[in-house]
Specification:
Cofactor: FAD
Helix content: 25-40%
Protein name: FAD-binding oxidoreductase
Largest sheet: 7 strands, antiparallel
Radius of gyration: 23 Å
CATH topology of the domain at 98-216: Uridine Diphospho-n-acetylenolpyruvylglucosamine Reductase, domain 3
Oligomer: single chain
Keywords: FAD, Flavoprotein, Oxidoreductase
Number of helices: 14
CATH class of the domain at 98-216: Alpha Beta
Family: Belongs to the FAD-binding oxidoreductase/transferase type 4 family.
Number of strands: 18
Pfam families: FAD-oxidase_C, FAD_binding_4
Shape: globular
CATH architecture of the domain at 98-216: 2-Layer Sandwich
Length: 475
């Protein structure tokens, strides 16, 4: 296709004004994600309604060498859906159909634009359970959740997003449609190509439809909030919970005092069910099919913890309202913009035995470098996932984000951890990817990228430097 006019005009000519929005008509929400970067107005905002239209978009953009940034619910925190200058923002929001729920196979077939909460509700209405869950459930979409291999609250029991998907339909950079909407739990025929695209952040292809694995819906669920002596006590409680609760253990969330007390003081409406102050706080969720037995197991676990001195105080939810109140403490992270302002937020993975020491190093190191720093720690520690956020009040709007990042990621690297546990790489972590992946792993990633997207149009600048920087001496 010859570039005889402006590329946005060619897009409108070939795709139609119903799909393509340009200029000032592009809404503000399409110009940024949740990563906190400065908004960028894309060249065009395209909202296809079908896989065929996605194919047409990518085919034209590939011919024109136009960058394409796939967008879902725009709730990503690493910049994976953030537009780049001169790009086409490809929104999948119109592809929001729940096509089928198959009770016999325990599967759900959905479009990439389906909001996670809507998929959860549809599964529940069918008497089944979509176990994938995260705080942005009301905004994030299935396509984005799979593209980032999101984690969330129930990973300890059900696994990351890739464990919830049986098949996908994907459009490649040149417009080729690869449909593999497998429903079978066992299908060992050749390469499992869907796993190339789950977690690839839209750099290898655009997920348009997916088959999700559903579970039997638990008939009972409750939780307990515990005040523990210290991190070692919390780890002892985790080991006891795994052996004593088995598959009933669906969440094990840990909150350090820095987070628990700070948010409690800043948000007086948050419940305060525990008396006094404790070395660390744990939220345990259990679910199952025998309410009496599951409740007894939880109470026995807590009784043993209290007897051993690992648990200093504990409160078990007496109602659904209590469950929601306990989770509200952990999910108060959504209020950061109100109580702190701009934060440097980190999602890292660490060996369980090292997590307590790493938190001490991060919190003490932040204050040593920036004396008025606010440093908060919490996370899905049952999944080896730590979240750390920092803010330097004296810096105002000009937060030292780059310096904080370098400090945090170097600390994580030296402890044998990973720079990303569940949020992906996007643009914000790209330069630190070698901290986590070996040169041979990075080379393999580049080979795959080169094979599937030789023109580099899909989400450029995300995950990998593309095209790769020449090695020293080859310039």
């Amino acid at each position: 296709m010859r570039m005889t006019s402006r590329p946005e005009h060619l897009l409108i000519e070939h795709l139609g004004a119903q799909l393509v929005t340009v200029g000032e008509e592009i809404p503000e929400r399409a110009r940024h994600d949740w990563s906190g970067q400065q908004p960028v107005c894309p060249l065009a905002w395209i909202r296809p309604r079908s896989t065929e239209e996605v194919s047409a978009v990518l085919r034209i953009c590939n011919e024109l060498r136009l960058a394409v940034v796939p967008q879902g619910g725009l709730t990503g925190l690493a910049g994976g859906a953030h537009p780049v200058a001169g790009c086409v923002a490809l929104s999948l929001e119109r592809m929001n159909g729940i096509e089928e729920i198959d009770p016999a196979m325990a599967t759900m077939t959905v479009g990439a634009g389906v909001v996670l909460e809507a998929a959860q509700a549809a599964a529940e209405a069918a008497g089944l359970f979509l176990a994938l869950d995260l705080g942005a459930r009301g905004s994030c979409t299935i396509g984005g959740v799979l593209a980032t291999n999101a984690g969330g609250n129930r990973v300890i029991r059900y696994g990351m997003a890739r464990e919830h998907v049986l098949g996908v339909e994907v459009v490649l950079a040149d417009g080729t449609v690869v449909t593999s909407l497998n429903k079978m739990l066992k299908n060992n025929a050749g390469y499992d190509s869907k796993q190339l695209f789950v977690g690839s952040e839209g750099t290898l292809g655009v997920i348009t439809r997916a088959v999700l694995r559903l579970q039997p819906r638990p008939t009972f669920s409750t939780c307990a909030l515990c005040g523990c002596r210290d991190f070692a006590a919390a780890m002892a409680l985790l080991a006891a919970a795994r052996s004593g609760l088995g598959p009933s253990l669906t969440a094990f969330e840990v909150m350090w005092p820095s987070f628990y007390h700070f948010m409690g003081e800043k948000l007086p409406s948050l419940p305060q069910p525990l008396a006094g102050r404790h070395g660390i706080y744990v939220l345990i969720e259990v679910s199952g099919f025998d309410a009496e037995r599951e409740a007894e197991r939880l109470e026995a676990l807590l009784a043993k913890g209290l007897e051993a001195g690992d648990v200093e105080d504990a409160v078990v939810a007496a109602s659904g309202r209590d469950v929601a109140a306990f989770w509200a403490i952990r999910e108060s992270v959504s209020e950061y913009s109100k109580v702190i302002g701009k934060v440097a937020a980190f999602d890292v993975g660490l060996p369980a035995h090292a997590t307590g020491q790493v938190v001490e190093r991060l919190e003490a190191g932040a204050v040593q470098r920036w004396p008025d720093a606010i440093a908060l720690s919490y996370g899905h520690v049952g999944d080896s996932n730590l979240h750390f956020v920092a803010n330097v009040p004296s810096a105002g709007a000009e937060q030292p984000s780059a310096e904080i990042s370098a400090f945090v990621y170097e600390t994580v690297r030296s402890s044998g951890g990973t720079i990303s546990a569940e949020h992906g790489i996007g643009t914000l972590k790209r330069q630190y990817l070698p901290y986590t992946r070996s040169p041979s792993e990075l080379d393999l990633m580049r080979r795959i990228k080169s094979a599937l997207d030789p023109n580099g149009i899909l989400n450029p600048g995300k995950v990998l430097e593309w095209p790769p920087e020449p090695e020293a001496g080859t310039r």
